[in-house]
Amino acid sequence: MANDADFIEEEDDLEEEAELEGGEGNTLSDLPGVGAATREKLEAAGFTDMLGVAVASPSVLAEKVGMTPTVARKLIQSARAKLDMGFISGNDMLEKRKKVMKITVPSKELNKLLGGGFETGAIIEAFGQYGSSKTQIAHQLAVSVQLDGGKAVYIDTENTFRPERIISMAKALNMDTDQALKNIKVAKAYNSDHQMLLAEKVEELIKQDRDIRLVIVDSLTAHFRAEFIGRGTLAERQQKINRHMHTLSRIADTYNVCIFVTNQVMAKPDMFFGDPTEAIGGHIVGHNSTFRIYLRKGKKGSRVAKLVDSPNLPESEAPFMITEDGVRDL
Q1: Neighbours of 84 (CB within 10 A)
Q2: Taking 90 as the threshold, does the pLDDT of residue 189 lie above it?
Q3: Could you tell me the residue ranges of all domains in the chain?
């Protein structure tokens, strides 16, 4: 691991170069102390731009790049100062909200439930029992996002992605089925660490292809639930899920993409009234999700989506059904 002296010496040299060259920018090389060698280390660790450094934590940056926490902290502070990551007015926030897009599915009721569609720049969590159509909605979104020129990334943790389903849904929308499959990047996650790594690599994919507007994680908690068993491991599990959710949240906000995650449920034996099911991940997943949808089976093969949490929409329900063509209204 490099020591402070190595980076400080390089910092002094580069400050002199910056004074000679003049001008300021927002690339990694514009940060004090970042020369060619340090830039290569940052990029190799996945920090390819100034924003990536600015939103990193000192401990993560130090561990991945191989620098001390002190130097990492200075680097982060410099990036934040250059990007002016302070307060903005409500008007500025309103202008930023105008860039939000809505991914619509072939169910008017489901779109209406979410205020016009699945929102970019947000994490949308869909949780429910087995067979409640979480994966079906994920497949439908991966197809529907392409109607407006978008593409999707699908992180598969339970071996649920089916290209045959994409083909049938694409045919129903008169889409080129071969192109529909090409526009979906799929990766299978074999454990929780691999899943977290894939989430970080999504950022690289988006930088290479700005048409990516949807990231699906199906399911979010399956590996964490299988690997961390018993109350003694609960704290560690929640910490890892929290880091994972923060990575997804940063990607959603930075690149204005929709993050759709599915989640499992567990039974609450002490629940005597109402629905005895609860989403896995507890408050960590709940607080990090922008919208939360509870899915359940309805009558005669129908499904019901209930919006249980939203920053701007009322709690409500939407009936829909799953057909050979995909997600449709009753």
Answers
A1: 7
A2: yes
A3: 4-83, 96-328
CA distance 31 to 51: 11
Residue pair 2/66 in contact by the 8 Å Cβ criterion = yes
In which band, very low, low, confident or very high, does the pLDDT at 18 lie, cut at 50, 70 and 90?
A: very low
Each residue of 154-182: pLDDT tens digit? 999 999 999 999 999 999 999 999 999 99
Q: What is the mean pLDDT of the chain?
A: 89
Contact between 137 and 151 under an 8 Å Cβ cutoff? The reply is no
Of the CATH numbers 1.10.1660.10, 1.20.120.520, 1.10.150.20, 3.40.190.10, which one belongs to the domain with range 4-83?
A: 1.10.150.20
pTM, to two decimals: 0.80
Residue 238: C-alpha distances to residues 33, 124, 195, 235 (Å): 35, 19, 15, 5
